[in-house]
Design a protein that fits this description.
Layout lengths: L1 H25 L4 H26 L3 H22 L6 H5 L2 H23 L5 H24 L2 H31 L4 H13 L1 H10 L11 H30 L4 H20 L2 H14 L7 H14 L5 H12 L4 E9 L2 E8 L8 H14 L3 E2 H6 L11 H6 L2 E9 L2 E9 L9 H64 L3 H27 L8 E4 H12 L6 E4 L5 E4 L1 H17 L7 E8 L2 E8 L6 H6 L17 H11 L3 E7 L3 E9 L5
Parallel strand pairs: 7-9
Antiparallel strand pairs: 1-2, 1-5, 3-4, 4-5, 6-8, 9-10, 10-12, 11-12
Helix pairs in contact: 1-2, 1-8, 2-3, 3-5, 3-6, 5-6, 6-7, 6-10, 7-8, 7-9, 7-10, 10-11, 10-12, 14-18, 18-19, 20-21, 21-23
Length: 677
């Protein structure tokens, strides 16, 4: 068996020596790489001393001393991974590293002195190595749990390797403490355990190239590390108690100590899975080891997640439920300030606020606006002087179990309040609770304000669409009225003219159709949809000119035969009527207005020209096609040319204008023969 142990330690020494050569050949000059090299070389020495102890037979304490230095080196490497400091001066002044070095030195010196005083007894040395290996496990657990996913990928082989060695040694020395001697079957196996983990250490060394391991210690890390530390201390105490039982128990001592350790393990498991112990430990850690009660990053991500995944029927409901969840309230409401003396309940859950609360709510709102504070009813009940100038009827609040009032500010403007109620007596809010609630109320207030703005924008768009439709309808009615007024003005002069009578009937028929269209649009509350049909463009232009030639100047038309295309006939007729009417109105009665129709390949061209007053370039660029901008005062709507542009471009056409002031204007319309409507 001795030869097997010697072979294992020899192989381990050779493997770690090759490991050291590989690290040296890599020429990595970072502090982390150098300390890995130191740790590996110390491990080589510890394995060589263990092998020599088996071969020569000197005291086992020398091998244990080398093993103590090996544990110290690897533990310091773990601490080095837990710090961002990389210079040698910064490392040796690091508080954690210096603290470990001091405690390790004190324990090593004290236990070896105790061993010498007690005639080289091993009792305290066994306890020493139980403590050192347990300490290593705690450091490994902290390192791994506090690392992010990328760092974990790099260090997990090293964590498994060092943890395996530490657990094996912990069991070895724990058993040795109980029976007051080392089990050499375990001792001879240590060389092979050390050999097996070399590949894992090599993998981690290759992955951590630059030593940039950034660690964040969270509450969860402290909690689980504390649980592990408590378990370790408990096992250490139980091991010592088992040793005492074995020492004074005589021939039954071993059996009793084993039974005692099994019972202790059952008690430990029961304690670790007890929720009350875990809860008390979390509270203790939060109070004594952290300045902050909350993990604000987790709280913020949780708030964002709730906002994004809510299935609430309204954003008021979502905001109220989120605020209720932060203080475990069973009821709540969100109130919006309507006037200085009135509030509107936007949403209420299990909380009915009648008019009797109105004056109290006004008092609360004035105080919140003045101080910017959250009102804790329980704190007000005990120390009302904390809330200067606030006068509340507590009996009224107690009827609804109202406990907390959180103001909502959007920017610096006061929006309203969250009213939160709880059936159970709640503890007073501390400053950190208030900061969290205030931050959440600000975020929820902005969220509610954004949605209200979106609602108003949607409503405004609906009104805008309705107003635009109304403007077009009024424009059509104005044109019908102009046609009928023209008949009336010419009736006295031409009432006996048969052609005039025929024109009158035709005009009345056209006006009737247009009025029917207007009434249909009003009944349906929307503009009529365009209807594409194959029409003769020449015939449409002729129809428009016949209607417009009742007025001066007369319109002349150079037409071509058989020019058809698919188009909305009624709208096209209206557009041409607007453009020709505008040309007549801009031209004196002795002037001229011409319409030309041309066809080339797949396009139709319509040119409407006059020798009227013309338009300036600035007017054409900035005002001509702008809706509701008119130069006719109250007589015009300012949408005739705008409607023409919308219609032409809607069927993939082009409308252009050329004009010179005091010389005339030309409107050019280019239409594809097969447009998509």
């Amino acid at each position: 068996m001795d030869s097997l142990g010697l072979f294992g330690y020899s192989l381990a020494s050779a493997a770690y020596f090759v490991f050291a050569l590989l690290i040296f050949a890599a020429r990595n000059k970072t502090s982390l790489a150098r300390w890995v090299l130191v740790s590996v070389l110390v491990t080589v020495i510890a394995n060589v001393v263990a092998a020599l102890q088996i071969q020569i037979g000197f005291s086992l304490q020398w091998a244990m001393l080398a093993d103590g230095f090996k544990i110290a080196c690897w533990s310091l490497l773990i601490l080095l991974c837990n710090t961002e400091q990389r210079s040698f001066r910064a490392i040796i002044t690091n508080s954690q590293i210096r603290q470990y070095a001091k405690v390790w030195s004190i324990l090593m010196i004290a236990c070896w002195l105790a061993s010498v005083v007690l005639n080289y007894s091993y009792e305290y040395l066994f306890l020493l190595f139980i403590v050192l290996n347990l300490w290593s496990l705690v450091l490994l657990e902290q390192l791994y749990r506090s690392a992010d996913s990328q760092v974990r990928w790099a260090i997990w082989p090293m964590v498994i390797a060092l943890a395996s060695v530490a657990i094996f040694d912990f069991v070895l020395y724990a058993q040795a403490t109980m029976v007051d001697s080392v089990d050499f079957d375990f001792w001879f196996s240590r060389g092979f355990i050390s050999l097996i983990v070399v590949p894992l250490l090599l993998i981690s060394t290759r992955r951590i190239r630059n030593g940039a391991v950034r660690i964040f210690v969270s509450r969860h890390v402290v909690f689980y590390s504390s649980m592990l530390m408590i378990a370790g201390i408990y096992l250490l105490v139980m091991a010592f108690a088992g040793y005492v039982i074995n020492y004074i128990g005589g021939e039954w001592g071993s059996v009793v100590s084993i039974g005692f350790l099994m019972l202790s393990a059952l008690v430990l498991v029961a304690l670790l899975i007890t929720e009350s112990l875990r809860r008390k430990l979390k509270v203790f850690i939060a109070k004594n080891f952290f300045a902050n009660k909350y993990e604000y990053r987790d709280e913020w991500l949780n708030l964002i997640g709730k906002i994004e995944t809510t299935n609430a029927e309204s954003y008021y409901q979502m905001a109220t439920q989120i605020m209720m969840s932060k203080v475990d309230a069973y009821a709540g409401a969100i109130l919006k300030k309507v006037t200085g003396q009135r509030f509107s309940v936007q949403y209420s859950e299990k909380l009915l606020l009648d008019d009797t609360f109105n004056q109290q709510l006004v008092e609360c709102s004035l105080f919140c606006q003045r101080q910017g504070w959250i009102i804790d009813i329980e704190e007000y009940r005990q120390t009302p002087t904390v809330y200067p100038g606030l006068s509340l009827d507590l009996s009224l609040f107690d009827t609804k179990s109202i406990r907390i009032i959180v103001p909502i500010f959007i920017g610096k403007a006061f929006y309203g309040m969250f009213i939160l109620a709880g059936k159970n007596q709640v503890k007073q809010l501390n400053w950190e609770d208030r900061d969290l609630l205030f931050a959440i109320s600000k975020q929820l207030g902005n969220f509610v304000s954004l949605h209200e703005a979106n609602d108003k924008l949607a409503e405004s768009k609906q009104f805008d669409a309705f107003n635009r439709m109304s403007a077009f309808l009024v424009h059509d009615l104005k044109n019908v009225q102009a046609q009928l007024a023209l008949i009336t003005s010419n009736a006295e002069k031409h009432r006996d003219n048969p052609e005039f009578i025929a024109d009158v009937f035709e005009t009345v028929e056209s006006a009737t159709e247009r009025l029917s269209k207007v009434l249909s649009q009003l009944r349906n509350k929307q503009a009529a949809q365009p209807k594409s049909e194959l029409v003769d463009i020449s015939a449409v232009i002729n129809s428009v000119i016949e209607q417009r030639n009742i007025e001066l100047p007369k319109v002349t038309f150079d037409k071509i035969n058989h020019c058809e295309m698919a188009i909305d006939n009624e709208t096209f007729h209206s557009v041409l009527n607007h453009l020709i009417q505008n040309a007549q109105e801009a031209t004196s009665k002795d002037g001229w207005v011409k319409v030309e129709l041309t066809q080339r390949e797949n396009h139709i061209g319509i040119k409407i020209s006059d020798n009227g007053c013309g338009m300036s370039t600035d007017f054409i660029n900035n005002r001509l096609f702008k809706p509701f901008d008119t130069t006719k005062g109250n007589a015009g709507m300012g949408i005739g040319v705008f409607e023409a542009k919308q219609f032409v471009e809607g069927i993939a056409g082009i409308i252009k204008v050329e004009s010179i002031e005091n010389k005339g204007t030309v409107f050019i319309i280019d239409l594809p023969i097969n447009p998509r409507l």
